[in-house]
Amino acid sequence: MGRKRRVEYEGAIYHVTQRGAGRGLIFMDDADRRRFMENLDWAVGQDGIRLYLYCLMPNHLHLLVETPQGNLSRFMHRLQTAYTLYFNLRHDRTGHLVQGRYGAVLVKGDRYLLNLSRYIHLNPVAHEPAAQRSNRQRLARLNEYIWSSFRSYSGLAPVPEMLDDKPLLALMGKKRIADRRDAYRRFVEAGLSWPLSRWEQESGFDTSRDKPTEQDSPVPVPGAIRGNRSESVRRVAARIEPEEVVRRVASAFGVEEESLFRRTYGGGARTAAIYMLMRHSRMTQRAVRTYLGFGTPGAVCRQMERFQRKMRADPELNAFIQKLSAAMTSAG
Fold first, then answer.
1. Are 54 and 39 in contact (CB under 8 A)?
2. 84-108 pLDDT, tens per residue?
3. 266 within some domain
4. Rounded to 5, what percent of the chain is helix, strand, coil?
5. In terms of residue numbers, what domain contains 206?
6. Is the same domain home to 150 and 279?
7. Helical H segments across 91-235, by residue range
8. H-run or E-run covering 52
9. CATH code at position 253
10. What is the average pLDDT score of the chain?
11. What is the SS3 assignment for 67?
12. Mind listing the pLDDT tens digit for each residue in 141-188?
């Protein structure tokens, strides 16, 4: 019998899980995790995905995503392929890195969404050896773990551009963003002392099978939590037309728009335009090559790799690009 076909449609929200082949490690060290996060950021921008949550564990990962374009399979193929190629090359191995195809279950209802988010964010303290520690030690572990989105949600770390935390935080029923973060932090911390069986019940995640289960009747969120319907989780991010992206990039860098289309132009604005077109116009490398007049898709890829390395090494450039990208998002 063939595999069950994925249910994909515009605006769908999924709890995505992926485990290493044979329960093996998919992250050997922080360098692997950093590379995966870079690939995730790239894939989110490429496919117009809204990333709500993430948590990287040594042998598995969790993502909570929305697909405004109904393209989960394309997004995951892009993400998995890029990371597997990197991992196998770096660690001198061949073959499959992950176990079968990824798990993806539609998320139904805001209350279920909140409970699921708590389960995902508590993963670092749910497994050995953290599961055997005191509540105080587990709290410290939760707050210190940098490979999940919890620190951003609770205000302990900046919110990366690829992460959209506002819709979920809006469900906390507070007006001020700081109050929402505080309420969410307390909401998650309330589960630190729970047994694993209650986590399964609250989240709809069957740990005995290492996979989520569809849940049509969400477990109610505690009475103190009230959803704010004025900010919908299913708000679809706008796509910005390429012409508008080019205009804004040229203006920000103080150059003529025509210069971004010249192969001989060596300024950073042309490479920044690639970055913005792929993120905000959701263009592929091939489409960017044609639009800006690059020789090959490989040339676009090499330009982007150099540009991303430069951004990591230059805090001022990184801040400038992030500010420009945020301005496009808010005005788009």
1. no
2. 999 999 999 988 999 888 999 999 8
3. yes
4. 50, 10, 40
5. 12-212
6. no
7. 110-121, 123-126, 135-144, 150-153, 166-170, 177-189, 196-203
8. strand 50-56
9. 1.10.1750.10
10. 82
11. strand
12. 999 999 999 999 999 999 988 999 989 999 998 889 999 999 999 999
